[in-house]
Amino acid sequence: MSTIKLIKQKLAALNPEKIEILDESAKHEGHEGAKNGGGHFSLTIVSCNFLEKSTMARHRMIYAALGKMMDKDIHALSIKAYTPEEI
Q1: How many CB atoms lie within 10 A of CB 41?
Q2: Which residues of the chain have pLDDT under 50?
Q3: For 3-86, CATH number?
Q4: 3-state helix/strand/coil string of the chain
Q5: Where are the domains of the chain?
Q6: What is the pLDDT of residue 37?
Q7: Distance in angstroms (rounded) separating the CA atoms of residues 39 and 53
Q8: Shortest CA distance to 38 belongs to which of 81, 7, 65?
Q9: CB neighbours of 30 closer than 8 A, spacing ≥ 6?
């Protein structure tokens, strides 16, 4: 299974209304994190679960959902996390 599919599968726990993941790893070839196999991704996610949560809390929720993927499969993750009302 591709890393993007695994990310989507893990983030399904947040009941996203919209999720967009871009693999930007090619832009970072030769980067130290890329040498260890970790990819660079950009994430946009919309979920009601983010209601009344700070940006930091939203990021923590995402990191918790991704779990061990953050240790090996993902080296860098750019996050834009919104509620439906914010888009």
Answers
A1: 21
A2: none
A3: 3.30.300.90
A4: CCHHHHHHHHHHHHCCCEEEEEECHHHHCCCHHHHCCCEEEEEEEECHHHCCCCHHHHHHHHHHHHCCHHHHCEEEEEEEEECHHHC
A5: 3-86
A6: 65
A7: 27
A8: 7
A9: none
